[in-house]
Fold each of these.
Amino acid sequence: MARHVLLNNVEHKNLRIVTRHGKDLGEAVGSVPTFPTEFAEILREYPIFFRKDTNTGEYGCIALLGFARDENLFLEGDRWDASYVPGIVARGPFLIGFQERQDGGELRREPVIHVDIEDPRISESEGERVFLENGGNSRYLDGIANVLSGLNEGIAASKAMFAALIANDLIEPVQIEPLETKLREINSTAAIVRTKRCRIEPELLFGIGREKKIAPPEHRHQSEFESFAFTSAKIFSRECFEGFANGLPVSVVRAKGFIRFGNGAQLFNFVTGRWELESFEFDRTELVFIGRNVGAEKEALVRTLKKCEV
C-alpha cells in the first residue's frame, strides 16, 4: 500500500531511487494518463485517447501502451523502448503536493514534493541519489522537480481543454479539421486516423515489436487508407534499402513485409517514421505499403526500390 510522506533532506538523506524499468516496478500497464503539456513528445511515440471516468464523469487523456490491461509493449527487459517516457512514469515514486504557509499575513499554498516510501524503486543501496552529501538537491531530484512541475501544469491545461470541448458539445465533425491542423503543427509526421467508437486496425497503432511470428503480409487496412504490394526475387543492398526506409514520405503510415539482402532475409516493420529490421527466414522480398493516397506514390517508391536491387 502506498505511503506518501513529505520529502526532506534529513529523514531521507540516504535515499536512492532505482531508475531502471520493469514489470516488477509496476510498469506492466496498458495505458497511462497523459496531459496536453507533453503532447508534442507523446504524439511521436504513443496513440492518445480521450477517456471519461464513469464514476466522476470527468474526461482525461491516456497514452496507449498495449492492448491489454497489463500489457506494455514499450518494456524491453529493464529498458523503456521509446525516445520519450511519459511524465507519469518518469516521475518515479514522487508526486506533487501543497503545503500552506503565512506570507506577510497572507495564507499561501506552495507546491512541495512527496515520496511514496513503499514504492519498490525506493532504496538506500542502489540507484540515483536524491540528496547530495551536503544536503543539497541532486541533479536527479532537480529533474524530477521539472517533471512534476510539468505534470502539475498539464493537469490544469487538461481541465481547461476539456472544459472548452464540453462547452462546444465535445468534438463535432465540423471541429475535426482544425483539430487535425493543430495536431500536425505539433507533429507533422504523426498519423491521424479518424475512427468511430475507436474502431481501428491494431496494426496501424502498433507495428514494431507487436508480433514476432509473422505471416506473409496481407492487404487488409483501415478504410480511407490505400495499399499496394511489391514483390521481387532479387537480392537488395541493405545500405540502399535503409536510405529508402529513412526517406519514405509522410503519406506512408505503415509498411511491413520481408526484404532479402545478401546475408539473408529480414523482417521489415515501419510505423509512422520509425522502422526496424529483424532476421527472418524468407525466400523472397514481399512488402506492403499502407497510407493515404499512397497509390499516387507507388510508381516513385517502386522505382526507388528497384535501384536497390543488386
Amino acid sequence: MDADHDGKLSRAEWIIQFGNDDMFNAYDADGDGVISPEEWLAGQKMAKEFGDLDANGDGKISRAEWIARYGSDAGFDMYDLDGDGVIDADEFISAKMAQLQAAGVLTPQMMAAAGSTVASWRGIRNKYQVGVTSPPLKIKPVY
C-alpha cells in the first residue's frame, strides 16, 4: 500500500490501491495531501461507525437512522455538510476527522503520549492488528 515506504499514503498510492481517489480527502484530515498512519486509523474507525449507523445499508445516514442511534437529531446538521438531508460516508468521516483534529487527537504528540511509537504502516498493522490492505468503506453513488 505504502509503495515508497515513507510511512504515508499519497493520493497516487491511494489510487493504485483502491482504483480511484474516492474518500481520500475524507481520510486526509489535515489536508496536507497525504494520509498519515493516525489519519488512516481514524478513518477506518469512522468508516466502521458509519456502517453501524447506516442501518438499511443504502450508503447514507438518514435523520431517522441518526435519531434511532443517538435519541435525537442533535448534531445531525453538523454532519450533513451539503445540507441535502442525508449524511454520506465522505461527510461523516470528514466531520469526524475535523472533530478529532480540533481535539488534538490526531497529533503525533497525542499518539506518543498514548504510548504509540508507530513509525510506519507496518508498525501500525502490527501494533493495532489493523488490516491496512483492506479497502476503505465503499459507498455506491446515489443519483
Amino acid sequence: MIPEPSSESGNESVENPGRMESPERVGNAKQVENVESMENPGREESGLPTAERAGPDFANATPSAVAVVPEPLPFSFTGQATPYFRIWIVNFLLSVVTLGLWSPWAKVRKRRYFYGHTWVGGANFEYHGNPVAILRGRLIAAAAFVVYWFVDHLLPGAGPALLLVLLTAAPWIVARSLAFNAANSSHRGIRFGFDGSARAVLAAIWPLFLWPVVLWLSERDPLAIVENATAFIVTTAGLYLVLLCVYPYAVARVRRLTVSHSSWGQTRFLSSMRTKKVYAIYGIAIVLGVAGLVAMAVVGVAGYFVARLVPDIDADTIGIATAVWAGLLYVILVIVVMAYTRSRVGNLVFDTAELADLARFKSRVSARRLARLYAQNLFAIMFSAGLLIPWAAIRVARYRVESLSVQPQAALDSVSSAVTAGASATGEELGEVFGFDLAL
C-alpha cells in the first residue's frame, strides 16, 4: 500500500550513492532530484512518494507531518476443539431434553465462544445477544410454519398463496434480524449497527417471491400436466432458468446491502462490490456443476456397458458399484461447487469492503483448501457418528478467520479514536427494540 519510488534511477542512487558523485550525472534535473533524495534519505528509504509524485503539499510538508501507512493486521482465532466440544455437547443434550427450547441459549453460548476467540489488533469480538429475544423469533418462525403446514394439508391448493402472504413479511423480518445481530456484536467495546430498511431488503430478495409460483406448478393435477405436457415443461424450465439467472443478483444485492448499511459505532462500512463479478463466480460454478454431472453420466453409461459386455459379473453387483461411484462423484461435486462459491464470494465481499476511509479488508480463502477441509470434515463426522462436529467447526472457523486481514489507513489508535468519537451508547437499546432473531 506504500507507493513505490518514482523512478528506477532513484532506486539505483540509494543502492549506489557513489554514482551521484559523478559530475556528468549532476547536470540534469532528474539527477538533482536524486541528489535531494540522498541528502534526505529517510524520504526514499521509507518508501514515501517523492515531491514530484505527491505534489506541492507533500513538498512543503515537514517529515513529521507525513504519515506512514501501518502494516496490515491479521485476524487470529484461538478457539480449540476440546473446550468447544464441552459447550456443544451440553447444548445438544439440553436441546434434546427441552424439545428445542434450549436452542436460543445454545446459539448465544456458541456465538460468544466464537466471537470471543476471534482477535484483530489485540482485541477480540464480543456477542451480547439475549436468548429470550432469540426465543421470540424462533416461536414466531415455528408458529408460521405450523400455520403453513396445516393450511397446506387441509387446503392443498392454498399452500403457495399462503407462502406468498408469509413472504410479504420477509423484508421486515430480515431487516430486523440483521439489525439485532449487528447491535449485539461489538469490538473494543464499540457496538456494530445496521440501518437497512425493509424496502432495501425487498429490492435484494425479490427473487424469493418466485418460489410460490414454482410450488403452484409442482402441485398441479397430474392429469392436467399430462394433457399439456409440452406447455408444462416449457413453463417450468423457463421459471427455473429465471430463478437460476436471478440468484447471483440476489446474492450480490444482499451482501452489498449487509455491508453498506452496517456501521461500527457511527462510522459506516462501504462496499464497491459489482454484481457482474458475482455472476462470473456463479457462471464458473455452473460449468463445474455441468462437468460433474457429465462425469456421473459417464459412470452410469460405463456401468451399463460393463453389465452387457461382462455377463459373468452379477448385474446387481455392477449396479451397486455404479451407484456408489455416482454417489461419491455427486458428493465431490457438491463440495467443490460449495467451496468455490463460498470462497470466491466471501473474498469478493471483504476485498470490496472498507470502514469509511479508515481501513480496508483483505480475504485470501482458497477454494481448493476449503474443499479439502469440507471433505475431511464430512468423512470425520460420518465415521464419528457426529461427535467430531465441534472439531470440524473449529477447523473451518480458524481457516476462514485467519485468511482475513485489515489494512488501517492510519495508526490503529487513531482509527479506534475516530470510531469512538462518533459512537453512541444506543447499541444495547437498539438490540432490545428490534427484539428478535430468526437465524437458525
